[in-house]
Design a protein that fits this description.
InterPro entries: Ald_DH/histidinol_DH, Ald_DH_C, Ald_DH_CS_GLU, Ald_DH_N, Aldehyde_DH_dom. This protein is of the alpha/beta class and 471 residues long. The protein is 41% helix and 21% strand. The chain has a seven-stranded mixed beta sheet with strand order 12-15-16-11-10-18-19, sandwiched between helices. It binds nicotinamide-adenine-dinucleotide.
Length: 471
């Protein structure tokens, strides 16, 4: 397979797609290793994950360098690599504590003469299928707690961003006992992985998520889906307009808007709309592309070339239907890559694709509202329910409005906080996801299967107790 460099547009990397047999062989190797991995106990597994964290940290430059070629961005690639290190250390610390908190003692059953002893064991083989937008973080975000729980991990990174895997394999040689393997390729490899594992976590688009859920249903394995979003932000009448504009901009355009939790719809109260829009446009126009110097500026190219066309089509459709683009709005072809400056659009209507479909670009459609009730109704008028945000004059007001939004996680007095907070348990709503939380303690506990040892402590009934005429 070949991968395109998002900065140059050139196809400059080749890699071998894993065959179905190779996926099955990797799964078989991992299953063999998993028995010992689980048997060694949480403390020893945590120590191994800490060693992997150290090994990744030592090689962070090599990993971030390849990741920056995959994604066309340097600073975010560095943050992402260190984010993975943090994820390993967080679970290696919290995991053993969680195991210590698990119930171990026998408890009396409601059935007389019986006690129940709980026992926990991990799903042996965990599988992850990851997208291209945060390739390292999202390939491991569920795998690390699964490893901590005692599973082995088979990971399929996105075929769009494969380069970082080579230096990551180097890091794994310094922690060779951690049972991780990567299989490379596209949809077919994803399907083969689902057939090979005992539990699958998928991060990606809602359309592909449905296919993954169907395949998991055929294999009769649990599936967790973390899918797309169309996150709303409400700016209330009491909010400071310039403060809100700064937060709205950042929450929408970090990583060129290629983040599931990006703010993609803004509802602003009429009395602050004018200064808010003025500040938003001013701040947006101060943002620089990381071109021509990749080490200068704020936002990089589109990672996946056809994504630029999708975003452009949404903006063109909205403009043709009467929306006004206040700044940005054009795909710029520079040095072979596709770029877009922060784009502010007004006079949008709920039927426009830019208000209904996931955009995944640096685009901020702004709607002015008169009544907060109306803003809440419009914010909830979406098939997605990933996350949302509220900016208000007080935390109390933001909390009151936020608690009425239909999404898994609500950022108050900031936006897109889920990208920075790993321990906020939440369940994505509507078509944004399925299954337990990847964040918080549930992130690990979901990988533990509970077995009940049901023991008889009194006299067991005999067949005589079931004889006709005895009751
Ligand atoms: P995608 O759905 O196109 O692909 C994701 C992965 O699925 C890739 O590894 C791909 O090879 C694999 N795949 C494709 N077809 C498959 C099939 N039929 N069977 C099995 N696997 C298959 O997603 P993408 O374009 O790489 O990523 C962008 C999307 O991911 C956006 O919708 C974004 O919102 C979403 N996302 C969600 C979260 C979250 O936590 N909710 C985080 C990041 C990205």
């Amino acid at each position: 397979m070949k991968a395109i460099n998002p900065r140059t547009g050139e196809t400059d990397y080749e890699f071998a797609e894993s065959s179905r047999d190779e996926v099955a062989a990797a799964a078989a190797r991992l299953r063999q290793r998993q028995t010992e991995w689980e048997a060694r106990g949480p403390q020893t597994r945590a120590a191994a994950l800490m060693r992997l964290a150290d090994a990744v940290e030592v090689r962070q430059d090599a990993i971030a360098e390849k990741l920056s070629v995959d994604t066309g961005r340097i600073a975010v690639a560095r943050m992402e690599t260190l984010g993975f290190v943090g994820n390993l250390r967080r679970w290696a610390t919290r995991g053993p504590q969680l195991f210590a908190e698990l119930p171990q003692d026998a408890s009396p059953s409601a059935t007389p003469g019986v006690e129940i002893v709980p026992s926990f064991s991990a799903y042996p083989l965990f599988g992850a299928i990851a997208p291209w937008n945060f390739p390292v973080i999202l390939s491991h975000i569920d795998a690390v707690p699964a490893l901590m729980a005692g599973s082995a991990a088979l990971i399929k990174p996105s075929e769009v961003t494969p380069r970082w895997v080579e230096p990551m394999l180097e890091a794994l040689t310094a922690a060779p006992d951690v049972p991780i393997e990567y299989v490379m390729g596209g949809p077919e490899v994803g399907q083969a992985l689902i057939e090979a594992v005992d539990y699958v976590c998928f991060t990606g688009s809602t359309a592909t998520g449905r296919k993954v859920a169907e395949a998991a249903a055929r294999a009769l394995i649990p599936v967790n889906l973390e899918l797309g979003g169309k996150d709303p932000m409400i700016v209330t009448a009491s909010a400071d307009a310039e403060w809100a504009a700064r937060l709205a901009l950042r929450s929408s355009i970090v990583a060129t808007g290629q983040a599931c939790q990006s703010i993609e719809r803004i509802f602003v109260a009429r009395n602050v709309a004018e200064p808010f829009l003025a500040a938003l446009v001013k701040e947006a126009e101060a943002v620089q592309l990381t071109y021509p110097d990749p080490a200068q500026g704020h936002i990089g190219p589109f990672i996946f070339p056809s994504q630029a066309d999708k975003v452009a089509a949404q903006i063109e459709e909205a403009a043709a239907a009467g929306a006004r683009v206040l700044t940005g709005g054009k795909v710029e072809r520079l040095g072979g890559g596709a770029w877009m400056r922060p784009t502010v659009i007004v006079d949008v209507t709920p039927d426009m694709a830019v208000m209904r479909d996931e955009t995944f670009g640096p685009v901020l459609p702004v709607v002015v509202f008169d009544q907060i009730e109306d803003a809440i109704t419009q914010a909830n008028d979406t098939s997605y329910g990933l996350s949302a945000a509220v900016l208000a004059g007080s935390l109390d007001e933001a909390t009151e409005v936020g608690s009425r939004l239909e999404a898994g996680a609500i950022s108050l007095q900031d936006g897109a906080l889920t990208s920075m907070v790993g321990d906020a348990t939440n369940h994505s709503r509507k078509t944004s996801g399925l299954g337990p939380s990847r964040m918080g303690d549930e992130g690990m506990l979901r990988f533990l299967r509970r077995q009940a040892l049901i023991r008889r402590v009194g006299d067991a009934p005999t067949i005589a107790d079931f004889a006709e005429g005895t009751r």
